[in-house]
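We treat protein structure as text, and this decision shapes the records that our systems exchange. Because each token names a local backbone shape, the row as a whole describes the fold. An entry from our holdings is shown next, in its original layout:
>
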Amino acid sequence: MIDDSPSRDLHATDVSEASAVRLAARGLELRRVPGTDEGFPAWLQVVARGFLDGIRSPAQIEAVRERSAYRRATGVYDPSAPDPYAPVATLASWRGELSVPGDAAIAACAISSVTVSPTHRRRGIARALLEGELDVARSTGFPVAMLTVSESPLYGRYGFAPAAFGASWRIDARRAGWIGPTPSGRVDFISRERVRELLATVHERIRRAVPGEVDVPGGHWDAIAGTRPDLEKAEQRRAVQYTDDEGEVRGALVYTVQENEADFAASRAHVHYLLAETPDAYAALWRFVLSLDLIAEITADQLSVEEPLRWMIADQRAATVSVRDHQYVRILDVAPCLSSRRYGAPGAVVLEVSDPLGYAEGRWLLRVADDGAAAVTPLAPEDIPADAVGLALGVEELSALFLGGVSATTLAYAGRIRSTDADAAGRIFAWPTAPRLSIWY
């Protein structure tokens, strides 16, 4: 059972005192911005601007406010600015659950809405915000932090590493051909309200089986399903469900279509979210997408790098697949993180971890039993067992290994880690299910 005390403590904790002092020396103020605060609309407008969105309407602000109680919003303010009520930097965090190898999950501090105004760059604001939030997360008992990023080079300096990659697909539907199974269940159109309910229910049943997945806040399901009242073009979202032979709903799909005015029979479809609890549901929903009338091209994002769909189409070259970093992880407490997951092979590893911020610094013994369960203990130099593999690495590299998304062998060849036997370490940290995160947050 996952301890929920970090969640309670996170909302009750003020901003990092050390970061507040650092920013105050620059004439800036760091403070919390509750959703009920009169300054929350201005905070939200700054977040929207930072992510290249338009000005939020009153209806949009209220929709976000209603769905933001779980978040801990923080802002940096410049009292000398023309509008001192609008922050010059923002950050939000909340208690999440991160799925780890072995059908398990661990409490994680999720971080989002990180922006710094272009008028206030090069003043150490981002560093103060991120390091301050990591201080708060660690002090409130979170063993790990996580985030999705718009600019990937920024977060390695704080110890974050890409731990789950996402694949984007573009499929030539006319060329692909279907050679996968044809399940005997049924696919039916459903309302946006119904699919919103199904997505939350089915995802909760299966999310721990996929490393890298998280417990999705309710507002995200509203955005995916098109049930959020402020969502533009929600009426364009279409939904279907898959029901198996026993009458149980095992999957759901949300997609949109875009007409090609020059050639109506060459229109496009975009898969916003496809969720499948069983192989039959997966096959039935993808077969439905690839069989859509008048559709020549299909796109989808945030798929697995080991997507079974590749082996269900007759011509794999009909699919253009690009992979990029997506779910970033930062280990804050080594023992609870590494003991929370299962491993691919038994063995012992001595981890020499360096961490510029100090949270994960130290020497640790990871001992994995035959069933994949692990025990992790601090280790003194004189206690190093003779049968253990040595592994020297930084917290960024350890965070990358955590979900099994990269091999220790690969990191050793890249010069990112040193090991007495990188292949053995690779077998231990390996996991058969590729990590994936199916949303942005």
Notes: The radius of gyration is 23 Å. DSSP finds 13 helices and 17 strands in the chain. Residues 125-139 form the longest helix (15 residues).
